[in-house]
Amino acid sequence: MISVTAESFRLAQTFTISRGSKTEAQVLTVRVTRNGLTGWGECVPYARYGETAESVRTQIEGLPAAITRQSLQTALPPGAARNALDCALWDLEAKLSGKRAWQLAGLPSPGPVLTAYTLSLAAPEEMRAAAAANAHRPILKIKLGTASDMPRLEAVRAGAPRSRIIVDANEGWTPEVYSDLAPHLVRLGVELVEQPLPAGQDEMLAEIAHPLPVCADESCFDRASLGGLAGKYDAVNLKLDKTGGLTEALATRDLAREMGFKIMVGCMVGSSLAMAPAVLLAQGAEWTDLDGPLLLSEDRPNPLHYDAAGAHPPDANLWG
After folding, report:
1. Which of 2, 26, 294, 314 is the most exposed place for a label (fewest CB within 10 A)?
2. Which residues are catalytically annotated?
3. pTM of the entire structure?
4. Do 49 and 67 form a contact (C-beta atoms < 8 A)?
5. Are strands 20-34 and 2-17 parallel, antiparallel or unpaired?
6. Average pLDDT in the 15-27 region?
C-alpha cells in the first residue's frame, strides 16, 4: 500500500530567496507498507519546476502498489514525486532486510558532514545581524539574487569575519551584474557561487574566467543534465528532489565526479526525514547544505543530530 500525506512544519523565522518568502515548510510524506512494515520518505513540491502538491500526489497515486525501486526509475521522471517514493522504498528495504540503507547501497559506514547554515535574503543591516548571530558557524550560505547585493555581501562579511561563505543567487543576476560582482566575491573570501544566471541563459559562463568556482543548481537535475554543464560550471548541487531520489542521486554523483565536477549536496526546506538520505549522498562532498531542520521550529520524531561536526547520519528509527 502507498499513501501520501500533506504536512507542514513551522519555520523558526521567515525564509526569503529571490523568488519569494515562506513561513513554513510544506511537504508530502509518502509511506509504503508491505509485509507489516512501513518505509517512508519526504519531498517538497517546487513551483520553480512546475510542481504542486496536487500534481505530485497524482503522480504517486497513479503508480501500482507493488512498484519496485528499480521500476520506479522509469515510471516517473526526476522530481519530487519520485524522490519521496524512492526514499520510502530504500527505508522499506532496510527494514525488511534488517540492514542499514548505506549497507544496501554498498557505501562505507557514514559519518557526520559539516553543513552550511543559510541566511535568507533581507536588508543589509538585517543580514549583518543574522551573520553576527551565526558567526560561530563554520560555513554560511547567503541567499542573494538582486541587482543591489553588494551591500549585503559586505554586511555579512562584517558580521561573520571568520566564517566560510557560499553565495546562492537563485538565478537572480544578469551577466552584467555577475561580472561586476565576481571580483568582490573573491575579495570578500566567498568560496563558491551557486547559479548566478538563469538556467538556459548561462552560456556566458563558458566564455569568461572563473575567479571562484561556479555551481549549477537549477541547471542540474540528474545524469542526463550533466553533459550540458561541461565548460560552464565547476560544481553541481545535487538535491534529492531534483534527481528524483537517492538511487539516481548516487549515480549522478558518481558520473559528475568522473566528469571532473566538484560536488555540493543541498536540500529544499524540509524536515529531518528529507535530509536523512541526503546525508549518505553527502559523504565526501566538497560542500554540504543540509540545514533544513536547523531552520525549523518543529521537526520529526527522532530527528537528525547536529553539532560542531555537522549533520550526523540518521538513526534507524528515523530512516534507513
Report:
1. 26
2. 143, 239
3. 0.95
4. no
5. antiparallel
6. 83
